[in-house]
Specification:
Blueprint: H1 10-32, H2 41-44, E1 51-61, E2 64-74, E3 80-81, H3 85-118
Antiparallel strand pairs: 1-2, 2-3
Helix pairs in contact: 1-3
Length: about 120
Amino acid sequence: MSNEPRSKGGWAQLAVAALVATLVLGLVLTAIWPGSFAYMGAAACPAGYPDAFVEEDIFHLPGEVRWSWSLVCMSAHGALYKPFGPLVWLLVLAHLWLLCLVAILVARAGNRKLLRSRQ
């Protein structure tokens, strides 16, 4: 028998931890590198629009400046298509959530292995 305490809802705690890490990582990634949305072009752009890039709009208002980024898909003939913004965010967050969940699971497995080796 192991002396490790068992907690109820371990998977739920992992999912919530991955969700929190995802939201923080998503906000930081957007602030530092908004061009990362272009990687979601393969999932968000329709057929016939293979090229994806991020368009930056800068709005100058009295006393402030606002930035806006949006994913734009372009066809071989130069036609542009802008996917629905929340769809792109959901795709980014879903990919980041899976990445964070895998990282947490790997870290947890390594921690358990380390605890077992010390016994």
